[in-house]
Amino acid sequence: MTDNFSRRPVLDMTPDGEFRDSPRPSGLNALLARTSGLAILVAVAAGGLLMVALAIFFIGLLLPVLIGAAAVASVSLWWRRRRMRAMGIQPGPLFVVVRR
Length: 100
Description:
Order of helices and strands: H
Structural class: mainly alpha
Number of domains: 1
Oligomer: single chain
Number of strands: 0
Number of helices: 1
Strand content: under 5%
Helix content: 55-70%
Radius of gyration: 37 Å
């Protein structure tokens, strides 16, 4: 007949409800603490790479819009200069004016 009471842990507590000795961490707890720190570092790095990938994706989406707008502006300027030459007006240099 085995004694089931000998396998149970003994809790040595003060009358205030605090432990007399601090519990000793097991090898598994130390291993899990190290691996959780590494897992958090990997998760933060993966999140950073995800943000960079999203930024590159959105830049890739906006690049054709930028190229199209530049092409429309170039054709518009070319057409206006061509019409001015056809009317006998020599177009001068192009100036870009920014108003604030």
